[in-house]
Amino acid sequence: MSNASVLDEVFSKFFSNAGIFKDREVLRHDYLPERLPHREEQIKRVGEAVAPVLKGARCSNIFVYGKTGTGKTAVTKYVLTRLEAKAKEIGSPVSFCYVNCRLAGTEYRVLASLCNSLQLHVPFTGLSAGEVFERFKVGLDSAKRLMLIALDEVDALVKSRSDILLYELTRINETLSQSKVSIIGISNDLRFKEFLDPRVLSSLSEEEIVFRPYDASELRTILAERAQMAFREGALSEGALSLCAALAAAEHGDARRALDLLRVAGEVAERRGANVVKEEHVREAEKLIEHNRVVEALANLTLHSKLVMLSVFHLVRANGYKAVTGEIYEVYNELCGELGIAPLTQRRVSTLVNELDALGLLNAQVTSMGRYGRTKKIRLEVTRTLVKEAFSSDSRLGRLIDYEPRCLSQGVRKN
DNA sequence: CGTCCACAGGAATGACGGGCGG
DNA sequence: CCGCCCGTCATTCCTGTGGACG
């Protein structure tokens, strides 16, 4: 069969079997649905909290807390869009700006994005953060608005940098004469409150709203509602739906996860040419999602981080279970030598290990071995097969996968 | 009970590339 | 074009520490 006809078959199968999906977009987690089931209470509370701005008053700052996939972002956006529409209707100068602090990355970029929401152009870099803040303040004041600033994943802002930006923002009203600002802080990490300057904390959480995780049956109704829009009539089995809900419920009641499962399960079924999404497709989707997550994370690492992963990889193979910092550095050094590149310092490698730990690729635990020092015990958090798969495509790393580090074959290892 | 290992991880500093305004 | 400031990565130097050993 010619290439063209193979492709033709793929396309026509895909098309005629328009079978599974009606509109897969509604399963993406950035899709904002018309209804948010089981969040009536939270919508009401956020709504009540922000309502005063319609009468021209500054509303309380709000702190929204809840695990991932509990609808914090959705509810906030939902309420704010409607608030803005209402404000427009009655001619009230209300606007809002939503920033995801983790995606923005730095304090500077958060500020830049705030400026952009005022149609203020600022360069990617080159200005001092203070300068950008100043521009924002001036721009905002001359715009004469009641501004609601939603800072999603604020914890990222506090962890990486100081909390100067938050502090400045909570005090910004003191220097504004024509405009007013309210802040909605969104976080999925409650511990972050402990690191926060108490003044900022008290100011930020004038109003506090907690989002409980969804349970399995709530997830089910959420999924069912979306599935109705996403899938063609009868293309989704009851079993598959329930399984998605159950799997996500087991994992902190994460609706985002549930939607991902459902969408990927649909795609699996589609690719298999099935007419109905079954439980087996959900199982498959579960593996696929995890697999992709890990391989992608591994492939995007910097060369040195990859070498650190490989070092642990070799140590796990040679000594069995956990590796300690010193050993890893030893192997890492040798691998660098093999590639003819300069190794980083142990200090640097230590923070790389911490980063890999945060990414869930490694697991590191500080342990004291008493007389024999204090170190970190480190193991792979992903299977060796996956590491192999992700790295074998890298031309530089390929040959290091089956390489036997000399420092391991010496046989002087104790446990 | 104190010592002392083998590191952890904070602070200060520097090199580098990007991007500004003038 | 220059001088300046930024964020990022990396190094250097450093102080801190849990607990087995003696």
Please tell me the overall pLDDT: 85
What is the tally of helical segments?
Answer: 20
In this structure, how is the largest beta sheet organized? Answer: 5 strands, parallel
Point out poorly predicted stretches. Answer: 411-415
Distance between the termini: 58 Å
Strand content range: 5-15%
- Helix-strand pattern: HHEHEHHHEHHEHHEHHHHHEHHEEHHH
Binned, the helix content reads: 55-70%
Structural class: alpha/beta
CATH topology of the largest domain: Rossmann fold
How are the secondary structure elements laid out?
Blueprint: H1 3-16, H2 40-50, E1 62-66, H3 72-90, E2 94-100, H4 101-104, H5 107-117, H6 129-143, E3 146-152, H7 154-160, H8 164-171, E4 180-187, H9 192-195, H10 198-204, E5 207-211, H11 216-230, H12 238-250, H13 255-272, H14 279-299, H15 303-319, E6 323-324, H16 325-339, H17 346-358, E7 362-368, E8 374-380, H18 384-392, H19 398-401, H20 406-409
Parallel strand pairs: 1-4, 1-5, 2-3, 3-4
Antiparallel strand pairs: 6-8, 7-8
Helix pairs in contact: 2-3, 5-6, 11-12, 11-13, 12-13, 12-14, 13-14, 14-18, 15-16, 15-17
This protein binds a DNA duplex (22 and 22 nucleotides) through residues 105-106, 108, 123-129, 131, 302, 324-326, 344-348, 350-351, 354, 366-376.
Describe the structure in your own words.
With about 425 residues, the chain is an alpha/beta fold. It folds into three domains: about 5-20 and about 215-300, Helicase, Ruva Protein, domain 3 (Orthogonal Bundle); about 40-210, P-loop containing nucleotide triphosphate hydrolases (Rossmann fold); about 300-410, Arc Repressor Mutant, subunit A (Orthogonal Bundle). The protein has helices at about 5-15, 40-50, 70-90, 100-105, 105-115, 130-145, 155-160, 165-170, 190-195, 200-205, 215-230, 240-250, 255-270, 280-300, 305-320, 325-340, 345-360, 385-390, 400, 405-410, and strands at about 60-65, 95-100, 145-150, 180-185, 205-210, 325, 360-370, 375-380. Strand 7 (about 360-370) and strand 8 form a beta hairpin. Helix 5 runs parallel beside helix 6. The relative contact order is 0.10. The structure holds a DNA duplex (22 and 22 nucleotides).
